[in-house]
Amino acid sequence: MASGKFLPLPYFFISSDWKILDYSHAASSIFLIGDDFSSLVDEENRQKVSQYIQPHLSEMQFELNMKTKHDPLAVFEISVRWEADEAHIICVEKTKEIDQLASDLMKLRSRLSETDFELLEKKEELEDAINRIHKLSGPFIPLYEEAGLVPLFGDLQADKLQVIEANILSRIDEEEYEQVFFDFHGVGKITMNGKEKLGQLFEAIQLMGTKTVIVGLSPSQVQGLGSKGTLQADAMASLQQAISIYVKKAEP
Question: Is CATH 3.40.50.720 the right assignment for the domain spanning 137-250?
Answer without folding.
Answer: no
